[in-house]
Design a protein that fits this description.
GO terms for molecular function: ATP binding; hydrolase activity; RNA helicase activity. Residues 1-122 form the Helicase C-terminal domain. With 216 residues, this protein is mostly helical. It folds into two domains: 2-105, Rossmann fold; 118-209, no CATH class. The chain has six helices and six strands; from the N terminus they run H-E-H-E-E-H-E-H-H-H-E-E. The protein has helices spanning 2-5, 19-30, 65-72, 96-105, 118-157, 176-196, and strands at 10-13, 37-40, 55-58, 86-89, 200-201, 208-209. A two-stranded parallel sheet has the order 1-2.
Length: 216
């Protein structure tokens, strides 16, 4: 949800999804010239053969080398010159030992490090922090809405009138801290909307990234 609020074409893929929803997520990757993102659990690590997948990002380091191989193997599925892909691991300090074991198992001392542009990272962190704040509040509001719908439907089925005082008003009906969270979330939406309308500037020689994309 955070990625979608950031304006990125992101979908999810996990075992709890219906078959129809899974197919929808996979189809987004098959579209020509698609820049779709699918956030997946290891349910997607085996058996998927989609030639248009160009990049795999390991958000966490897998515990087993075969899991790493299957994840990374979702890219470079094309034929000939098209069989090129990129696998990126985000390695936290607590995961360095696990990552080192994978490297040893694959017969290498380590993989190439990906350079990070400090200025670009700062822009991304600011946008992500705002999106996270928005998601946090929207989850509370969404939960209240679902519970109210269940309550109203149950009352309707029983032929009873609904006392609106019993409905959950979400953050607006909460204490002062909850109401402040709602105000801050609305402010975050306005600020994020403004930031996403501007390109993110690289640190090196003033090159730009267009929109929320990652190509110059």
């Amino acid at each position: 949800e955070t990625l979608r609020i950031l304006g990125l074409p992101a979908k999810s893929l996990h075992a709890q999804m219906s078959q129809k929803s899974r197919f929808s997520s996979l189809e987004s990757l098959r579209k020509a010239n698609s820049r779709s993102i699918v956030v997946a659990t290891d349910v997607a690590a085996r058996g998927l053969d989609i030639s248009s997948v160009s990049t795999v990002v390991h958000y966490d380091v897998p515990r087993a080398v075969d899991t790493f191989i299957h994840r990374a193997g979702r890219t470079a599925r094309g034929v000939g010159l098209k069989a090129v892909g990129t696998s990126i691991s985000l390695v936290a300090p607590s995961e360095e030992k696990s990552h080192a074991k994978i490297c040893v198992s694959l017969g290498t001392k380590g993989f190439d490090e990906a350079p990070i542009d400090g200025r670009l990272l700062s822009h991304a962190q600011e946008r992500t922090a705002l999106a996270t704040k928005i998601v946090s509040c929207e989850e509370v509001e969404s939960k209240a809405s679902r519970e109210n719908k269940w309550f109203i439907d149950a009352a309707s089925d029983a032929g009873l009138d609904v006392d609106e005082n019993l409905l959950d008003g979400g953050l607006m009906d909460g204490d002062r801290r909850d109401r402040q969270r709602l105000v801050e979330a609305n402010q975050a939406k306005a600020k994020l909307r403004d930031l996403l309308s501007k390109p993110m500037r690289r640190q090196n020689y003033g090159k730009f990234l267009s929109g929320v994309g990652l190509t110059e």
